[in-house]
Amino acid sequence: MAVDLGRFGVWHQAHKWGPELAAGVEQAGYGTLWLGGSPTEDLRDAEVLLASTTNAVVGTSIVNMWKADPAVLAESYHRLESEHPGRFVLGIGIGHREHTGEYKTPYETIVDYLDALDDGKVPVDRRVLAALGPRVLKVSAERTAGAVPYLTTPEHTRQARETLGGGVLLAPEQKVVLETDDDLARAVARDYLATYLKLSNYTSNLKRLGFSDHDLADGGSDDLVDALVLHGTAVEIAEGLKAHLDAGADQVVIQQLGKEGPDLLPGYEALATVLI
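Structure tokens predicted for LLM class F420-dependent oxidoreductase (276 residues):
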């Protein structure tokens, strides 16, 4: 990777980020602020995060290939690089079949999109790819700086590292709830996971990891929910996050559930005291 992302990053969609949270997360010591959802091709939301921080890297996770014109996206990348040199990483991905009416030949679409970014002079070592399955993981290793898997487990991280080999970025996302009451924590987790457990790319990946249809039904089994959303004290959650590093991750990207905006900051500060 051409820039240092740090060992831990934070992921949120644009509506949860804001100048106060961005600055606080950087101050707590996290290396990267990941902008989730489907940021628009003008990258204005990423620009806000860059302007709100001093040294932290900002990455998109991810810009949806079906929605963003690659030529315009390349121009936006160069604008951010000019304004904030060395601090932006372009994360792209194929999105979800269920949300895209024109979803066809996803593998070829990824390859063609990367070709277009090549034409737009977006450096290979400053772009990353959302990847879950072996085929797309291999593309991420060949055509980008590496992979940013979402909704995974340390076992997926281990398998992904085997597929990628060494010297390729692997930055999996991991959800957490800072709550010691199992029932309360799982309720928060199930509420958030409800949409994701209906999307075929995630359910297929979870089945490859050994989870069954039973695990995926009715909001998810306790085993599935606990694997996808860590809960407990900051110390307990930190052990689960470090499991990704032990499995081969270069960075673990943390998404804290159950709070909004600046209210998320105390949780990230608590985790930072035992992680960073």
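The longest strand covers residues 8-13.
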